[in-house]
Specification:
Jelly Rolls; nine-stranded mixed sheet; alpha+beta; 32 strands; about 900 residues
Length: about 900
């Protein structure tokens, strides 16, 4: 018949519990006092200014003109915007000293009044703004960029100093945990009904389907440095739906994205100085936040699960089950009802810790990570069509230097075409060499009368005659020898000679040019002679390459250059594409846990930069040079591996100059619980906005981190370090004296938060309204009905039962109300089952009128809320009834 209409009492399956960590951040609204030193803020602001040599004197002159320098030691407190000479001398010491050790110490900067430092920073902004305007008027484009960056740095420092000195940026973070345990099943809504008349029979087809696929997902439940606990969860369960909903609940405001070790952070209203009042309000806010998360998750899970029942048979690939239903009664109708089965979850919200927090705003937390994107952008900009800019007319033999500039006459260089070949790595043939000379000669017996002799000159292909040279020896015959070259210029020296002897003389045309210059192919040279005896004539033709041959050579060289440039281009483009693929793969194929750890490392580095200043070197230059001198492998980070690393005392001293502060920051802060709020890109330098907006990453959290112009970092102070941290941010004193009365009101807040956490949240209202006192899971609880007075010595308490109490552990007495008498004490003895002995009492507790609670806290923390949620399951319940009048 199915489940009854009323829910059954079931035992929760504690072994199947799911847990989700969350936190409630409560800022404390504490106004800064006039005598607050704000040492950390001041020191960070001064170093952020990056003062250049001479700027302090420029600021002093600017203040003198404005009448804001203190005169004759008046207004020593810096009132009315005046700056004392001692403060100016101190700030001048930050103008890039020879070594960082020459900078003033931290307490000296902390002693500068806030008003004086604010006046100095504002005046520096005005001085740098004047320099920017002057550079813009003079059109000094190469200088304006650096001046603008310096001005922006001063503006950011001024704003940060103003904001961070207005109020102490402290608060508290409540560490909480949502625990979900399966607590049985419950009949849900009616999904289908089938009425049957007396004796009626029908076939029913039942089909169930769900849009949520059944799969197992490995989820990361913590991000500690030394532990990485993983769990396997069915993604149809409430825990996975809640995790999905939590991912949609991490947005605080338009410009904020939450990062850090706590998966879910809920904000609480701004609290006053009293931590317990703030804790009560934050508990209410946290309960509402957690309830909303689980309710939305249940609703989301319900929307993803659907069940259909049809009385018709559907064919296809889906799985179906068909049943034949028959009403065997001959007189009474019946009805068969189908109900969905809901999975019941017991949800509890525990608060297990309280931490002091300290806020700071750091600029561009992902600046180092963007370098890879800068390289990626440069590579992508290098992907362009092939362009060959060399002109055809540049293929010449003109001499050029190593940069391709023409060489003056008489200078040394190489032909331009050779320089181009070296530029593109091309192999080209040399400029066509001149063809070899062609020589021919002829002899004859001699003639008294006119005679003619001819010489055939074969001109090879691709060559042309540059000039002809004549050599001859002719004897006289009864008269002076007469000789001419037909078609050439008449040469008197070759005419009417008593014998003619010519050796390698050039033959000219009538116009004075070289005879037969430019002629191609086979040529004939004819000579006229008279009165000759045994003449011998020789012709030597000097050759040039034809213009066509030169142009063909130029075309071959240009093609070789083009091919070499194209081959190099494709090789470069292939390398660029390969490099782009490598970078993109490196950026995207990283697991989520590694991404979050990398972001945490960058946040830690940004905090160190904020505390230690922009001039802080994680590896000082002289130590780096010492590493290089030892020829160690710096590129792969193995410089400390091996016995050959030798650093002198001075180098080790520089390396360790910030060691104490770095160690203190790493120890005093719970980096696993640091929360980061990311602010939009427009808090960065305006020139970088287009680039930052274009950054993309498949992981949305990493993309938001990359685009962040600045980040609000909420540092979670480790338990037991509250007083030391507040003393550190006051004057950067590491060995804090917690009893120092000059620490100010913030130390009392730290002590209150620490003591409040030690009592394990006794002031939070009970999760179970039926009880009059706080109920802690796995805690030992009893009551006392006697009256006890304050005592510095051990006190015996009569209790209802002392069972399960442990000697040496603390118990919490009474409730937190307007009397403020709740306190904790240590059990020193358990004499019997009705008494416990505590070490001392500071308040009176009267159990005569009403029993007061005696509670030993458990290990899970305070249970501040408990409720039930329901999610659909794959089960279906069937109910059959014949009394239709009783069915609603």
């Amino acid at each position: 018949m199915g489940l009854p209409d009323t829910p059954q009492v079931t035992i929760p399956l504690d072994a199947s519990a799911r847990e989700i960590l969350k936190g409630t951040l409560v800022p404390l609204k504490v106004l800064a006092l006039a005598n607050d030193s704000h040492g950390l803020v001041k020191y960070g602001a001064v170093r952020q200014l990056a003062l250049n040599p001479g700027e302090t004197d420029q600021v002093r002159e600017h203040l003198e003109i404005a009448g804001r320098l203190s005169r004759q030691q008046q207004d020593k407190d810096g009132a009315d915007g005046r700056v004392s000479a001692s403060s100016l001398d101190l700030l001048r010491s930050f103008e890039r000293p020879v070594i960082p050790a020459l900078r003033p110490d931290i307490p000296a900067v902390a002693s500068v009044p806030v008003q004086e430092l604010t006046s100095f920073v504002n005046a520096l902004v005005e001085v740098r703004a004047q320099r920017v305007r002057a550079a813009e008027q003079d059109q000094l484009g190469t200088v304006v960029g650096g001046l603008m960056q310096s001005l922006n740095t001063a503006v950011v420092a001024a704003r940060g100093l103003e904001i961070n000195t207005a109020a102490q940026p402290i608060g508290m973070l409540n560490l909480e945990r949502i625990e979900m345990v399966p607590a049985g099943i419950q009949r849900g809504e009616l999904v289908a009904t089938i009425p049957l008349a007396p004796g009626e029979q029908t076939a029913v087809t039942h089909k169930e389907w769900s849009v949520t696929s059944q799969e197992f997902t490995t989820i990361v439940t913590d991000q500690l440095e030394n532990t990485s606990e993983t769990g396997v969860t069915d993604n149809t369960d409430l825990s996975q739906s809640t995790t999905s909903q939590n991912q949609h609940s991490t947005q605080f405001n338009i410009t904020g994205t939450v990062q850090g070790g706590i998966p879910v952070i809920s904000g609480s209203s701004t609290a006053g100085v009293t931590a317990q009042d703030a804790g009560s309000r934050s508990a209410t806010d946290s309960i509402k936040h957690a309830t909303t998360i689980t309710q939305k998750a249940a609703a989301r899970s319900m929307k993803e699960h659907k069940t259909t029942i049809s009385t018709t048979t559907v064919t296809g690939t889906s799985e179906t089950s068909t049943r034949t239903l028959k009403n065997t009664s001959s007189s009474d109708p019946i009805r068969i009802d189908y109900f969905s089965l809901m999975r019941k979850w017991r949800v509890r919200l525990y608060r297990f810790g309280l931490r002091l927090t300290y806020d700071m705003v750091v600029p561009a937390p992902a600046a180092a990570m963007r370098r890879t994107y800068v390289e990626l952008e440069e590579l992508r900009n290098s992907v362009r069509p092939f362009v060959f800019n060399e002109k055809y007319s540049d293929i010449t033999r003109d001499l050029v230097d190593k940069d391709g500039a023409p060489v003056p006459a008489g200078g040394q260089g190489q032909p331009r075409y050779r320089w181009l070949a070296d530029k593109y790595g091309a192999s080209v043939r040399p400029y066509p060499s001149d063809p070899p000379p062609v020589s021919r000669d002829v002899q004859a017996p001699g003639f008294r009368d006119w005679s003619y002799l001819s010489i055939e000159l074969p001109v090879p292909a691709g060559a042309q005659i540059r000039e002809l040279r004549l050599s001859t020896m002719i004897g006289p015959n009864n008269d002076f020898v007469q000789f001419r070259v037909m078609g050439a210029r008449f040469e008197p020296k070759w005419f009417d000679k008593d014998g003619l002897f010519v050796l390698d003389e050039e033959i000219f045309a009538p116009d004075g040019s070289a005879f037969m210059a430019g002629q191609r192919g086979d040529q004939k040279v004819t000579f006229w002679m008279r009165f000759t005896s045994m003449p011998w004539i020789g012709i030597k033709a000097l050759m040039d390459s034809t213009q066509e041959t030169v142009e063909q050579w130029r075309a071959d060289v240009w093609n070789a250059l083009y091919s070499a440039a194209q081959t190099r281009y494709y090789a470069e483009q292939q390398h660029i594409a390969s490099r782009i693929g490598e970078i993109e793969d490196k950026l995207t194929s990283v697991d989520t846990l590694t991404l979050r750890r990398e972001e945490g490392d960058e946040i830690m580095k940004s905090v160190l930069r904020f505390v230690l200043g922009s001039a802080f070197d994680f590896m000082p230059d002289n130590v780096l040079q010492a590493f290089k001198a030892e020829a160690v492998d710096l590129a792969h980070g193995v410089e400390f591996d091996g016995p050959n690393l030798r650093l002198n005392q001075e180098q080790w001293t520089v390396l360790r100059q910030h060691e104490d502060i770095v160690r203190f920051i790493n120890q005093a802060i719970e980096w696993e619980n640091v929360v980061t709020f990311l602010y939009s890109y427009f808090w960065d330098v305006p020139e970088s906005w287009p680039f930052i907006r274009g950054l993309r990453h498949p992981d949305t959290s990493r993309q938001a981190f990359l685009r962040a112009g600045s980040a609000r970092v909420v540092l979670t102070v480790r338990k037991g370090w509250e007083a030391k941290w507040l003393r550190f941010v006051k004057d950067l004193t590491i060995s804090a004296d917690t009893t120092d009365p000059g620490t100010g009101p913030y130390l009392s807040i730290a002590q209150e938060i620490a003591a409040y956490d030690d009592r394990n949240y006794p002031g939070i209202p009970a999760a179970n309204p039926a009880k009059s006192a706080v109920r802690l899971h796995d805690a030992v609880y009893t009551t006392s009905s006697v009256r006890v007075d304050p005592s510095p010595s051990p006190v015996s308490l009569a209790v209802a039962s002392s069972d399960a109490f442990v000697i040496g552990l603390r118990v919490v007495l009474d409730v937190e109300d307007d009397r403020h008498i709740q306190e904790s004490a240590v059990i020193t003895e358990i004499p019997d089952s009705a008494h416990i002995v505590v070490d001392q009492l500071a308040h009176r507790h009267d159990g005569d009128q009403a029993r007061f609670p005696v509670l030993q806290p458990g290990d899970r923390g305070a249970l501040i809320a408990e409720w039930n949620e329901y999610t659909p399951s794959s089960g279906t319940d069937i109910a059959v009834t014949s009394n239709l009048a009783t069915i609603a």
